Each structure stands twice: as C-alpha cells, then as structure tokens.
Amino acid sequence: MKGRELTFIIVALLLGAILGGFVGELIGSFLPEGAAKTLFTKSVSIGFETTRVQLYSFSFTVGLMFKINFMSVLVVLLVIIYFRWWYI
What we know:
Mean pLDDT: 89
Radius of gyration: 18 Å
Shape: flat
C-alpha cells in the first residue's frame, strides 16, 4: 500500500511542476512588460544539454533539463502542503 502512495505523490509532484510551469508561462504571456511579467516568465534551467554518442552500429542521445519558474515552485509547494494535510 505504501508503494502506491509514494508513486501517487511522485506523479502528483511531477504533474504539479509541469502544469505550474505551463500556467506561469501562460499568465506571463498576457501581462504587460514589468516586474510581474518577469516573475511569471523568468525560469532557471538545471541539467545538461543533449549529447549524442555515435558508435559503429548504433547511436543514442542522452539529456536531461529541468526548467523551473515561480509558478512551478508554487504549485509543487501547494501539492506538498495538500498531501501533508490529507495523507500524512
């Protein structure tokens, strides 16, 4: 039972980060230039760019990048608060 709850929490956190980032970009696109637009559209990229490895008979690409903005952090915090209040 605990494994299912952990999986559910991880999926909820990932979806919260994705949807929060999308909502932040969407809100920022409608705001006029200024501090509020910067707050919603500014993001930090963490990770490494894609790297392609080509060997004689095959090739593969490796890369991982996280793009974090204000709304994605806010939504992840709200998901954590929700789960602490209802499940833990």
